[in-house]
Amino acid sequence: MTYDLWYWDGIPGRGEFVRLALEAAGIPYRDRAREDDGKNHDGDSASLVEDLQRDRPHPPFAPPYLVADGMTIGQAANILLYLGEKHGLAPADLEGRLWVNQIQLTIADMVAEVHDVHHPIAAGMYYEDQKDEALRRAEDFRANRMPKFLGYFEKLIQPDGWLTAGRWTYADLSLFFLIDGLRFAFPRRMLTIAHKYPRLMALHQRVSTLPELQDYFKSDRRLPFGDGIFRHYEELDPRE
């Protein structure tokens, strides 16, 4: 079976958490909004907007969502919980699956805070219209929130280098993408504090060299950062 993944075209965003799991596990999928179906033009994701308006028993609030086994599953962490159990990307026991899901939800918490750095007042306003507030939010995020989250994740990594002993899970892949995003959005701050989290940085390196992901990393299926959740503004990441 081939899954349908729906997410905005042109940015990795929250859809990347799902893509990494699908790619690493070799699960067939279609990145629907990126397909040339005659509806999308220059990354406008018109087909996604149309699909979101379909009547469904359980409609998603927003992408990403996955169409699988006759279901529409929304929210990245929820999608990964499903894929983790069905495709062995999480521990086999219930406690282990819930633990990996808990880590994923905590990653989602940090991602939301990253977004709110450059949009602290309203998501519908331009960054330039809330720049003063963003400067204040970024200062606290760099000084307090980044160390708090990264310090927590650092403590979770097992002696073998993964979040759960034995092998990687989808949460390990998600931590990799989180670190990638932070390095893009806050390169100066990450350069300053990365040495405090050696196990986390080692996990990032291990995921970057996973044989299962090398084809994806070299392909155009992997989108570059831009005006998505992880954004780089010089003024929000000053020299320290």
TrEMBL record:
Residues in GST C-terminal domain copies: 93-225
Molecular function (Gene Ontology), one example: glutathione transferase activity
Keyword Transferase: yes
Pfam assignment, any one: GST_C_3
Keywords, sorted A to Z: Transferase
InterPro entries hit by this protein: Glutathione-S-Trfase_C-like, Glutathione-S-Trfase_C_sf, Glutathione_S-Trfase, Glutathione_S-Trfase_N, GST_C, GST_superfamily, Thioredoxin-like_sf
Ranges of residues in domain GST N-terminal: 1-91
Listed CDD domains: GST_C_Sigma_like, GST_N_Sigma_like
Entry's transmembrane regions: none
Signal peptide: none
Keyword Plastid appears in the UniProt entry: no
PROSITE patterns linked to this entry: GST_CTER, GST_NTER
Location of the region described as Disordered in the Swiss-Prot/TrEMBL record: 32-57
Designated name of the protein: Glutathione S-transferase
The organism of origin for this protein: Bordetella genomosp. 5
Lineage of the organism: Bacteria, Pseudomonadati, Pseudomonadota, Betaproteobacteria, Burkholderiales
